[in-house]
Amino acid sequence: MSSPASSEPFATLHDIVELFNSNILGEFEHATDKEYLELFKDVVADSRTPSIEPTVSDVRVFRQTRDPAAVEGLFRELYGRFGHRFEADQKIISVKSVSDLAESLRSLETRTSSSIELHITRFFTKESIPARHWKPVLWNYLREHLRDFQQGFSDGNLEPPVKAFFEHIGYQIHETVPEHQKSDSQFERDIADVVEHLKESMASKFEGKSADALFDYLKRCQELFPNRVGGKRHYAKFISICNSSGTGKTKTVLQLPKFDVPLLYINMRPTSDKKNFPPRNDQIAALLERFTSMNSAQFYKSCL
Fold first, then answer.
1. pLDDT tens-digit readout, 116-151
2. Which of 203, 231, 259 is the last residue in one of the domains?
3. Alpha helices in 7-158 (DSSP H)
């Protein structure tokens, strides 16, 4: 840096915290304080602020920390001692957003920590809430406060646990939120974080009985298909599976081969939808979508 009195280091606070959380937090349990200090200095050195000189006392404070969200505050305090200031994140959420999240959670049928986490992740991405504010702590928070959310489901009021989580990650709840523009790079990074999270969720162990219920329903539909309803035959063998985002619809369908059901999965989400997983099957989707602009005669001719 040109001067220790400069208002902001070259590296962002987010970069420094990410480096610490990914490389040091919770690691090196058997290292001495002096050994840990050397590792700690590497993090500070990567932030290109040579005037920062952490001490063994600083190391002991950081070693006692297991909450990734708390690390941000410790780094602000450390850098502040040496005249460095980071631009503060604006942590304000509207009353409407709190109510919208609480209301959307009520529609969840699977009310486990995993399903709640995935639903909140998608909601936060839609609202452009920076992943660095909530992603490091969401899973552990839900595990520790799942009873509060379950009580909210029972009471039909999920605003208290939702408000409590926003307060936990340092958000103020206001009637309105000032307009702000997120940089393209930050927005893309948040989307990448969410997609990676969805990939991990899809690859995790399947839990629950929804796949069994779906298979039983399909068998019942197969048995009923030859029968007429009101003197009319069924039109075709298809069903709709409707539920909120993150409730496990896709993952449930993907379990059907375990019941010896042939499965060909095709995703036709819009090309503009980059925030979700699994991704669109572009070639097959494009082939099928071209039929939507045809009339019946054109469609018939295309099938010959």
1. 988 898 888 877 787 777 888 888 899 899 999 999
2. 203
3. 13-23, 33-46, 56-63, 68-81, 95-105, 113-126, 131-155
